[in-house]
User: Fold this.
Amino acid sequence: MDERLNALKSILFALSDAAVFLFTRPLGILLIGSTLLLAAGARLWSVLSDRRLAAKAAGEGFGMGAAAGTALRELVSMGVKAAGVLPALAAIGAALVLLVGVADTTRAVDEYVAGRKRIAELTATVLNLERRYKAVEARMDDVGGGRIKATLSFYDYGKPDTAAKTQSIDIGGKELFIDAIVCNFDYSEISAGKTVNLAIPFKVFSDEVPEADGVALSLLDDKGVPLMYRRSADELYGIGPEVYDARLAELMGSIRSEEAARGAGIVRSLYGDAVHRAVKTGDDFTVWVEQSGGLSVKDAASF
Amino acid sequence: MMRRRGRQGSPLIGALLILASFAAAGYFWFRGSVSSQRQRITYLEGLSTRLRAETIPLKFMVISRDGGEIRARVKIYDLAGREVAALEKAWPGSQLYIDILLFPIRSEKDAGNADSWLAFPYRIFTDKLPASSGTILFDAYDDGGFPEVLGGMDLSAGERAAVISSFAAARRSAGAGSPATEGAKGAFGSAVHEVSELSRFEVGTVYRVICRIKGGVEIMED
Assistant:
């Protein structure tokens, strides 16, 4: 059906383009004008030849004056005939205008439909890439005397309103580092809504305490899957708990092994990212996982 | 006969003209719709491009890992990709941290709500070397107060002054031995690094640090 429609459209567009060319472009008008002039010239030539032969046969002379008179009469005759077919010419003109209008409207409809599709694709891409989810919220309970006492709340992208777990930390320094493993997937996977970039916080350290001596965050269960990504059976929709667990373990396998991730062909980059801020008592900031890649930190009150 | 033919032709021409008028009206309506659609597409494409706007201010290569030290070569680039500084050094530890300072592009009042940032390569430290003892990179690309990492593009006098001011605030804090993030409300650091159990920087491989105006920092093989 589509093929037939496209074939019809091709014919319509070809006729429309030809009409537009012939009647609106200078070259087209020149072509039509030349053709009409040639036809009129040929007609005149034919009439004059006939008249000359007839005059010769009758033994009469056929001078310049007689030729001019004959040509003029023929031209007037042609004008009268043209006036006679004027309604038909007007009908042809109207039909051509209609043809061009239908063709242009069809083109506009095609462009509109293609545009709607493009908008849908771009909107999905922008929405998915603009999306971010909250990974960690850090509240500074007491900062002073070279120590930071804070409460960290960890969130799952599926449940942004409830912390999956909280943990209190006490560490030396004045700048708090929240270290996470970041797994950025291909844009196409994100824009198609198939997955989201992941961040798994695993350690806290400071400007004074190196990562090796930092505080480990116990967020992994016995299968090595972050608690925040676990789901109970009644929280799952459209997928069985066993399948979900298997897929999650597979995904975490990709995160744990860069080789496996590359083999799967979906992970764009895998690395650690320790986001940090100088802190003071009462500060409350949030670590966000950006779907364009990486992490960002914003005041908790900003959202 | 001629008269009858003329009477039959007139309704046909009229019908054709009416149809042509409808076609013309439909055509102009669709042209209007397509025009507004084009504007939306342009906006979305621009937005999409902006979201993905990224710079590569720094590239590095691990040269060796010996005796509990990691030696690396770091190069810093401006926005046009011109190398503005290079550094080669060894640091104690096994995991290299490349720290980028992200400075909010907002007024002081709205800085906590910023959604775009300027990226300044800040310092290098390791898993064994605390950040406060790391190598500060600001001096390497300071050109009379202007951070050369933001060179290579046309800046207005006002923009240039704002960049210099932001950089000076970060430098003041770092120079005073305080975290550079103390120098500006809403600023934060992003120290991207290898994770020994998962992904190590391979010796001899060049990695680039990608900074997005939206705030994310990412490491990828060059």
